[in-house]
Design brief:
signal, mainly beta, five-stranded antiparallel β-sheet, Ribulose phosphate epimerase
Amino acid sequence: MRLMPNRLISCALVSALLSACGDDGGKATGATNPNPNTTNNDTTSSGTEGETSTGGPDQTTSTTSTTAPPEPTTTGTSGDSSTTDGSFITPPDGGGGTKECDQWTQDCPEGQKCMPYSGDGDNAWESLKCTPVMENAGQVGDPCTVEGSGVSGIDNCDEGNMCWDVVDGVGVCVALCIGSPDAPDCAAPMTSCLISNDGVLTLCLPFCDPLLQDCPGDDLCIPNPQNPDAFLCVLDASGEEGQEYDACEYINACDKGFTCANPEVALECDTMAIGCCIAFCDVTEAGVCTGQNAECLAWYEAGMAPPGFENVGFCGIPQ
């Protein structure tokens, strides 16, 4: 899956990731652990076509997973612009970036850290390089700044952290995953490891509840493609699109309360699209789905839901 400075098109959409368009820093305000009886260990996704997970509707797939920041957007009145330095989780372009170091082992010389960056000008992280660790470097949750853009790889966060959710050059420090690609983990509680952009981007993001959509600010609560038990807070890259039944290509390209799923889930969806924005719903509430022949279908198979997530569902046509 690929993130553009700054989830999953439902469970099987393990190939497109998130986008960084918000300005709330992705903090874990109100986030809940979907399965408090488990650790933060996750399984990495190979990103092969046709991958599926244990819950939710099938989602769009791609050969690998990558993330990139969204294209800069302009807001405000004439003469006053605000640009976002992060973006969508974009599908891979089939090419491999330059890997000058290993972000898992942080094998750079003293005083430097291994960071993801964009080296091909497409605003999406695809490479790794050693960059300087600044004085008084920020820790997880601290505000941070970047040099150049959100995909430059140069920021003032400490080793093992990166500046995320960057808007106008300012973001928040989040932790990189620890462990290894085969056994990823997160040191901070209530977070889960998200691996995207062909393994270059490895972030520990906060848990959330898809029914409550309890992420801070405009952040979305969507499933983690590497861990079917976890829903994570990611940046909203939907822009003016992302309403129910809109076509979507990236896991974070739907509005809050929706997820990018297989378009065959609903009659209103364009079957030629890569994905379609489908609503989350509570299976205990009747008549919440508005689509033709749609019902609130359980996200998890019977008996497989993590504690507290038994009522999570999505609006779709029973298969």
